Amino acid sequence: MQQSNFHDYPALRMREAPHIEVHFVDSGDSPHGMGEGALPSIAPAVTNAIFVATGRRVRRLPVTA
Fold it and tell me: What's the predicted TM-score (pTM) here?
């Protein structure tokens, strides 16, 4: 083990990430699932934006006033 927690884990930077190719394959089924890949990152992005704007950490969803 080299890291004790996330605070000392060297996060991968965009310039260090490998090239990724995405291909959508027509299966003949009704369309579903192609847009779901981005969904897991929406909540952290919004809650981090709230933190930057207000200084208040959001720890629970749904986000309320």
Answer: 0.43
